[in-house]
């Protein structure tokens, strides 16, 4: 169904976005308003606005149809907001200043209607100024806010700021008894003899929510329930920015578009899988936030678990977002309860010196957790999720270690196992550690690698920032790389019992030196889980 047409159909409720998704016909034009709530904050400044800038610079956002609104309580002018974010954009002064002109700032509270009514008025004014066909305007709300205010903010958006469905043009007789514009919920008023009439003019309202989505199963479910009463799932984009990273997006291609991985990707061949996140700095100014959450909620329950899903899931029926997310949910539901002996927690020395962190804090800044998947493909293969702050390096990678070669006639086992490593950052790469003949006259073996280093192989090809890609997906209505409600629930089901035990002080983190590998017990757990470290071989990212 194309833009500008009316449709009369028997239907039970308002399902505009789901309907469009189902038919995949949402037009990609029309007035677009992007509203960044929490515009004065850290994420907005460092990630959201720069991502929007890059989309603009590359021509994905057009100045003739897009306008960006910042909203927060802080009382600043448009120019003050622009000055705050200017330094985080780019070096092309002219493009930057054109982009900044698209931004307007509205100040208001998060829990009263007047601010949101003002915001709505500004957005509407922009839509009218662009001669947007009534009903075709698109409103994207990005919640760069602490989760505590999500419920009230969502309520306010629902009440005051939904995309307007213009009726005047299309039902000339009706506008005499209706206000000129109707927000979506009012469409129920259009029920005539059990027929609902609605416009499919490509307009929508979508909400992007930042993690953390709750603190445990119960709080996450409450949040989902609350927001679910206001918006349909198809309107909700729960962002996990690791899903926007280039090599995370490559996982399904690697696994399902390459014949040689298909027969190997299972318990018969793979000994263990490690998914690792390391940062060489501490909580740095975010101690207050971090202490409430800890490394499991901050990194493992979301970023690393999402990666585990993509590594372990079965092939989806097709690339339709719902098929992919169905498979992810199945993997999560197959994860066995976590055993205490499969966990090592750490806290770096000096973490509690931060004045915003309580002196007695039990919050882990490091954790290794071994997950076990109870299904035909993965029974017996440990998935080791490891994350830590203030370690000796910064990187994120997936390391798939294969089993020993049976009947080792070269006696090369001591040199190390085959590994397939996907390096997410820095220096995106994937390499396969394999044993080869040492070049020369002797018949001896050595570990080497097949290396696909992106910087070398794709010279001059820019790798988009995760947020850039995910915001574009939101505008396009593609939910493949966003977390669905049941996925979130299944993820919390895995970690909630462990988190409660940590919160209650039943499990204590071990102290480790900043700049170290973390607690030594973590390496012992790795060895116990079956990981065999290769000695004497180090992969070095190639330089140009
Ligand atoms: N910063 C980061 O790198 C990352 C952040 N996130 C998530 O993104 C969201 C935003 O993060 P971030 O920008 O760091 O957060 P901030 O603490 O900077 O908060 C954003 C804005 O929200 C308002 N705000 C802050 N505290 C409160 C409060 N208690 N009640 C109401 N409003 C408040 C402030 O605006 P004002 O007072 O002007 O209204 C502030 O500028 C969070 O959910 C966070 O977990 C996710 C990944 C990374
Ligand atoms: O979500 C988060 O991610 C960052 C790390 O993101 P990256 O893209 O730089 O790897 C982490 O520092 C932060 O604690 C966490 O909230």
UniProtKB/TrEMBL annotation:
User: What PANTHER family does the annotation carry?
Assistant: GLUCOSE-6-PHOSPHATE 1-DEHYDROGENASE, GLUCOSE-6-PHOSPHATE 1-DEHYDROGENASE G6PD
Which protein, by its recorded name, is this? Glucose-6-phosphate 1-dehydrogenase
InterPro entries from the UniProt entry: G6P_DH, G6P_DH_AS, G6P_DH_C, G6P_DH_NAD-bd
Asked if the keyword Protease belongs to this entry, the reply reads no
Broad enzyme group = oxidoreductase
- Organism in which the protein naturally occurs: Populus tomentosa
Q: What does this protein do?
A: Catalyzes the rate-limiting step of the oxidative pentose-phosphate pathway, which represents a route for the dissimilation of carbohydrates besides glycolysis.
Associated pathway: Carbohydrate degradation; pentose phosphate pathway; D-ribulose 5-phosphate from D-glucose 6-phosphate (oxidative stage): step 1/3
User: Its family?
Assistant: Belongs to the glucose-6-phosphate dehydrogenase family.
Can you give the residue ranges of the Glucose-6-phosphate dehydrogenase NAD-binding domain? 35-250
- Write out the GO MF terms: glucose-6-phosphate dehydrogenase activity; NADP binding
| One Pfam family it belongs to | G6PD_C
What keywords are annotated for this sequence in UniProt?
Carbohydrate metabolism, Cytoplasm, Glucose metabolism, NADP, Oxidoreductase
Q: What is its EC number?
A: 1.1.1.49
GO cellular component terms attached to this protein's record? cytosol
Q: Which reaction does it catalyse?
A: D-glucose 6-phosphate + NADP(+) = 6-phospho-D-glucono-1,5-lactone + NADPH + H(+)
Record's subcellular location? Cytoplasm
Q: Does the keyword ATP-binding apply?
A: no
Glucose-6-phosphate dehydrogenase C-terminal domain residues are: 252-531
GO biological process: any one?
glucose metabolic process
């Amino acid at each position: 169904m194309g833009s500008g047409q009316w449709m009369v159909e028997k239907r039970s409720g308002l399902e505009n976005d789901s309907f469009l998704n189902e038919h995949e016909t949402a037009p990609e034009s029309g007035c677009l308003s992007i509203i960044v709530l929490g515009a004065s904050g850290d994420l907005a400044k460092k990630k959201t606005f720069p991502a929007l800038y890059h989309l603009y610079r590359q021509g994905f956002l057009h100045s003739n149809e897009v306008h960006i609104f910042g909203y927060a309580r802080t009382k600043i002018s448009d120019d003050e907001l622009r000055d705050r974010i200017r330094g985080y954009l780019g070096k092309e002064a002219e493009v930057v200043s054109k982009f900044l002109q698209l931004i307007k700032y509205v100040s208001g509270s998060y829990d009263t209607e007047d601010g949101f009514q003002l915001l709505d008025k500004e957005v509407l004014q922009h839509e009218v100024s662009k001669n947007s066909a009534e009903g075709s305007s698109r409103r994207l709300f990005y919640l760069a806010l602490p989760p505590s205010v999500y419920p009230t903010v969502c309520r306010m958006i629902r009440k005051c700021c939904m995309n307007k469905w213009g009726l005047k043009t299309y039902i000339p007789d009706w506008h005499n008894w209706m206000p000129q514009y109707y927000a979506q919920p009012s469409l129920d008023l259009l029920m005539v003899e059990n027929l609902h009439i609605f416009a499919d003019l490509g307009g929508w309202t979508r909400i992007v929510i930042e993690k953390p989505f709750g603190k445990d199963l119960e709080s996450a479910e409450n949040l989902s329930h609350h927001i679910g009463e206001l918006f349909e799932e198809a309107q909700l984009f729960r962002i996990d920015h690791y899903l926007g990273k280039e090599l995370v997006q490559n996982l399904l291609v690697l696994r399902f578009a390459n014949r040689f991985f298909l027969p190997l990707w299972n318990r018969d061949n793979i000994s263990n899988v490690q998914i690792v996140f390391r940062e060489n700095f501490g909580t740095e100014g975010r101690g207050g936030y971090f202490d409430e959450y800890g490394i499991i909620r901050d990194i493992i329950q979301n970023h690393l678990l999402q990666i585990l899903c993509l590594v372990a899931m079965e092939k989806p029926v097709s690339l339709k977002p719902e098929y992919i997310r169905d498979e992810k949910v199945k993997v999560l539901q197959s994860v066995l309860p976590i055993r205490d002996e499969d966990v090592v927690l750490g806290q770096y020395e000096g973490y509690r010196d931060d004045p915003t962190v309580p002196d007695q804090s039990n919050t882990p800044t490091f954790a290794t957790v071994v997950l076990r998947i109870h299904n035909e493909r993965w029974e017996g293969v440990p998935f080791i999720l490891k994350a830590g702050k203030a370690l000796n390096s910064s990187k994120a990678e997936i390391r798939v270690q294969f089993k020993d070669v049976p009947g080792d006639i070269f006696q090369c086992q001591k040199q190390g196992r085959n590994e397939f490593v996907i390096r997410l950052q820095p220096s995106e790469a994937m390499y396969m550690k394999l044993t080869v003949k040492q070049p020369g006259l002797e018949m001896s073996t050595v570990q080497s690698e097949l290396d696909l280093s992106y910087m070398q192989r794709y010279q001059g090809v820019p790798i988009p920032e995760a947020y850039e890609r995910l915001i574009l997906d939101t505008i396009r209505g593609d939910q493949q790389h966003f977390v669905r409600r049941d996925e979130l629930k299944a993820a919390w089901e895995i970690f909630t019992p462990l988190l409660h035990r940590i919160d209650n002080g039943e499990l204590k983190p071990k102290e480790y030196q900043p700049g170290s590998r973390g607690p030594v017990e973590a390496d012992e757990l790795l060895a116990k889980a079956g990981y065999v470290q290769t000695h004497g071989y180090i992969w070095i990212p190639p330089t140009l």
